[in-house]
Design a protein that fits this description.
Mean pLDDT: 85
Distance between the termini: 75 Å
Number of strands: 9
Strand order of the largest sheet: 1-4-5-9-8-7-6
Number of helices: 11
CATH architecture of the largest domain: 2-Layer Sandwich
Low-confidence stretches: none
Shape: elongated
CATH topology of the largest domain: BirA Bifunctional Protein, domain 2
Largest sheet: 7 strands, mixed
Length: 333
């Protein structure tokens, strides 16, 4: 039996060496190592041998199997390489040439600005909250101390749906939902799309806002000014002046508008002031609407338009460029 195994191994090694095609190689592999293959037959016979001969013959069969498999694998690699080389030669393909590079995608300027703002406020402990685009009048207006006679509630400013539903005009309802569902202290950011009847080179009926809310004990206007000044210096640069102007919003008191003085001698905007956000201390009535004790807690809120910040930061003069998906613009970011 030992002699037969060695002869079988040598015969198949010679046969494999003379093979010229993969299909022929597969046939030999099946013939020698398949379920009913010749070497498999010897392996099955080992169990019928006397006990003292089984280990020796078993090792012999397994060694022959390993050698045949190694030669089969090497021959298969050689034939596959030859087939590929033949195909490339016929196609006229030069495999030594570098491959075609895949163009990388680019983040949209709006996405870049949102990510940067979220990252900067994360340092202050703010977390992101989201809410639905379709809102109720209660959360969009009434809970924010915006009365029924307020201009923002006019049909020419707001997209009304049915059953007192509307497309939210700001992301402030996210603040209301958070204050109703969570207890202070609160530090949140609410980025998202908002909708208003407005369209020109600097306005769009659909745009993006990010609003912030901080509620805790003993929060003051000094905390608001310090937080927003630090943020704006980080976003635009330490050499950009920041100023706060007295203003009015129904949901904050006192209220301020925040401006940044452009500082780029090479830009036509140099030395000009630009409004970048509105802010203020949260109105006591808003706290009452959300079941927070205004005698125990205070807080500040702020909101800014993402498109406006992107246009200023990247010197984009027409808001419509941000929505056209023009690769000539996008590939610059």
């Amino acid at each position: 039996m030992e002699k037969e195994i060695l002869e079988l191994k040598d015969n198949y090694i010679n046969s494999i060496d003379n093979v010229n095609g993969l299909s022929e190689l597969d046939l030999i592999k099946s013939k020698v190592l398949g379920k009913n293959g010749e070497l498999t037959r010897f392996l099955k016979q080992v169990s019928s041998l006397p006990p003292e001969k089984r280990p020796v013959m078993g090792q012999l069969v397994n060694k022959a199997k390993s050698e045949i498999m190694a030669i089969l694998s090497a021959k298969q690699s050689k034939l596959e390489h030859a087939r590929l080389h033949s195909k490339l030669s016929k196609d006229g393909t030069d495999a030594s040439l570098p491959g075609i590079s895949v163009k990388k995608g680019h983040l949209h300027p709006i996405s870049l600005v949102i990510r940067e703002i979220v990252t900067l406020f994360d340092r202050f402990g703010f977390t992101v909250k989201e809410g639905p685009d379709i809102e109720s009048e209660e959360f969009n207006f009434e809970a924010l101390n915006i009365g029924k006679d307020h201009p923002a509630r006019d049909m020419h400013d707001t997209f009304y749906l049915t059953n007192k539903q509307l497309l939210r005009t700001h992301t402030s309802p996210v603040q209301i939902r958070t204050m109703l569902n969570e207890k202070p202290p609160l530090r949140i950011l609410a980025p998202g799309k908002v909708y208003r009847y407005d369209a020109d080179t600097s306005h769009s009926p659909v745009f993006h806002q990010i609003e912030g809310l901080y509620v805790d004990k003993n929060v003051t206007l000094a905390d608001l000014k310090g937080t927003l000044t630090t943020f704006l210096h980080s976003f635009f640069g330490q050499d950009y002046d920041v100023r706060f102007r007295s203003s009015y919003f129904p949901f904050t008191e006192p209220s301020v508008e925040v401006d940044v003085k452009w500082n780029d001698p090479g830009s036509k905007l140099h030395g000009k002031w630009f409004e970048v956000m509105g802010a203020g201390l949260v109105q006591r009535e808003v706290f009452r609407q959300t079941k927070i004790d205004p005698d125990l807690y205070t807080g500040f809120a702020f909101g800014m338009g993402i498109e406006r910040l992107a246009m200023l930061k990247y010197q984009i003069n027409d808001i419509r460029l941000l929505y056209e998906n023009d690769s000539r613009l996008l590939k610059q970011f």
